[in-house]
Design a protein that fits this description.
Layout lengths: L2 H4 L8 E3 L8 E3 L9 E4 L12 H7 L3 E4 L8 E4 L3 H12 L8 E6 L4 H14 L4 E4 L3 E4 L2 E4 L7 H13 L4 E5 L2 H5 L10 E4 L7 H4 L2 H9 L10 E4 L3 H7 L6 E5 L6 E4 L8 E7 L3 E7 L4 H16 L4 H10 L8 E2 L7 E5 L4 H13 L6 E5 L9 H12 L2 E4 L9 H12 L7 E3 L3 H11 L5 E5 L6 E4 L2 E4 L2 H14 L1
Parallel strand pairs: 2-3, 3-4, 4-5, 6-10, 6-11, 7-10, 11-12, 12-13, 13-14, 18-22, 19-20, 19-22, 20-21
Antiparallel strand pairs: 1-5, 7-8, 8-9, 14-15, 15-16, 17-18, 23-24
Helix pairs in contact: 3-5, 4-10, 4-11, 10-11, 12-13, 13-14, 15-16
Length: 488
């Protein structure tokens, strides 16, 4: 595909410097992976600037560069105001603008994106539609699973995936939209039929630095250029207030405050929450939600309201919600055949940890709540003592351990968590840095009626230590440890 064709939709001043009719056969953002005929994007990063690697890219076979400043190199160059922005438009053009053949549905928010997305997919399929999904746990083309490395793939992989979905006859694509994806302009040029905002709580402040900046970034999804209609959890007051300023149609969902779509008569059960779902005071149905936790009632409300906005009928909404028993790594009850329960959950922020522990506490009649958790390295330091305090306050026993320490000293991370738990008078806890040994300790100390919550990893199947991802699937780890315990 010719450079002039690829660059035609890039916004802002664009200048093609030399060889404007050059053909491009692939797109690349990593100079080490350049193939002959590639268009190489010189992205200025947080630590390195890919403009510095342009000579290596050209030597490896790149026939053109996308740059923010003219380079003294004999190669075609597309000079743009923002390479990240240009990448999204060029990738879409390269793959034939597949999103124009699909109905895009987006979910953003600190928590609930994954579960809400799975529920939306289930509802749309119950209504007879073919649905793709792009998210944290995995991506799916219908029933076929595609592994996921990031919540939102980079624009090249993203557009390639959308191309596959369109070619295989998908009608809708439901996707999680992270604040990072919006900040890094991965979704420039996209238009969503409907997008939902689940909630806002502390997370990713290592990147966004303040809650205001975090919120403002997420709100960029709801501009008139990017989204046709919005759904908001009105019970999250800060988010609800921000949505009053939007210029697109907004539908509200909630439990505690008046809303267009709401849930009431909610029953508390160990494995789910039956409730009454009402739409715009015109229609209602009884939903037997098969996932525990009030936050999952909110997730189901978000899914139901977004599908209602898409014109999906109430019967399909009910059927779709009731069809989902669990989402991988989200309050997932493991099949352990033990006299105590073991629950896997992705909770890695203060609010998420508090939610899972409150939920488990409600359904634990006589036993103890034992929680195992840590905090990721190279991320928000402020949340570490907060999470320690939450564990000490809401669990009967806490086991502090490693999560993904990345480049940090895991013991330093644990010391910061420990400062929070020490503020809780009488809190019972132990520090075991090795996560496998920590899980073994939890399983060995559990008694009949107890609940063991393994928080932080969820669906992840690795631990990242010093830049290396080591295999670590907690479902496998639990199974292996229980086999050893039973042998004893």
């Amino acid at each position: 595909m010719r450079i002039t064709h690829l660059s035609k939709n890039i916004p802002g001043p664009v200048q093609v410097l030399g060889y404007e009719h050059q053909d491009v056969t692939s797109l690349c953002t990593d100079s080490r992976k350049v193939e002959k005929g590639a268009l190489f994007f010189c992205i200025p990063g947080l630590r390195t600037d890919a403009h510095d690697f342009a000579p290596q890219a050209v030597e490896a076979g790149a026939v053109a560069l996308v740059v923010e400043r003219k380079l003294d190199i004999d190669c075609a160059q597309i000079l743009v105001r923002d390479v990240r922005e240009a990448l999204s438009y060029i990738a879409a053009e390269f793959y034939g603008n597949p999103a124009q053949q699909l109905k895009m549905v987006g979910v953003t928010g600190t928590k609930g994106k994954t579960t809400s997305s799975f529920l939306i997919k289930s509802i749309l399929e119950a209504a007879g539609h073919k649905v793709g999904l792009i998210g944290t746990v995995c991506s799916m083309i219908g029933d076929r699973e595609v592994p996921a490395n990031l919540t939102t793939p980079d624009p090249i992989d993203f557009q390639s995936l959308l191309r596959q979905m369109a070619d295989e006859g998908m009608e809708y694509v439901v996707m999680e939209v992270s604040a990072h994806a919006l900040a890094l302009k991965k979704l420039e040029g996209m238009v969503f039929e409907v997008a939902g905002f689940t909630n806002l709580s502390q997370d990713h402040l290592d990147f966004f630095h303040s809650m205001d900046a975090y919120l403002e970034t997420k709100l960029t999804l709801f501009t008139r250029e990017m989204c046709r209609q919005a759904v908001v959890n009105v019970d999250d007051e800060r988010v609800a207030l921000a949505f009053r300023e939007l210029s697109i149609p907004v539908t509200t969902a909630g439990i505690r405050r008046p809303a267009d779509v709401y849930a009431n008569d909610i029953e508390i059960g160990e494995r789910g929450h039956p409730y009454r779902l009402t739409f715009h005071k015109r229609a209602a149905t009884e939903v037997n939600l098969r996932m525990a936790g009030i936050f999952n009632v909110y997730n189901s409300l978000m899914a139901a309201t977004m599908c209602d906005a898409l014109g999906i009928g109430i019967n399909a909404i009910k059927k779709g919600l009731e069809a989902v028993k669990s989402v991988p790594g989200r309050i997932e009850l493991l099949e352990t055949e033990t006299p105590y329960r073991v629950i896997l959950d992705y909770a890695h922020s203060p609010d998420a940890l508090e939610n899972i522990l409150n939920t488990v506490r409600q359904t634990t009649k006589s036993g103890r709540v034992i929680v195992l958790f840590g905090c990721g390295g190279d991320r928000d330091h402020d949340k570490r003592p907060i999470m320690g305090e939450i564990g000490g306050r809401l669990a009967d026993f806490s086991i502090l351990t490693s999560d993904n320490p990345r480049s940090e000293d895991p013991n330093q991370i644990l010391e910061e968590i420990e400062k929070g738990i020490q503020k809780v008078a009488g809190a019972k806890y132990i520090v075991i840095e090795n996560r496998r040994k920590a899980i073994a300790h939890a399983l060995e100390m559990a008694r009949p009626g107890d609940v063991v919550v393994l928080a932080g990893k969820g669906h992840e199947t690795y631990q990242e230590i010093k830049g290396v991802k080591h295999p670590f699937d907690e479902k496998v780890v639990v199974r292996e440890l229980l086999e050893k315990i039973q042998v004893k």
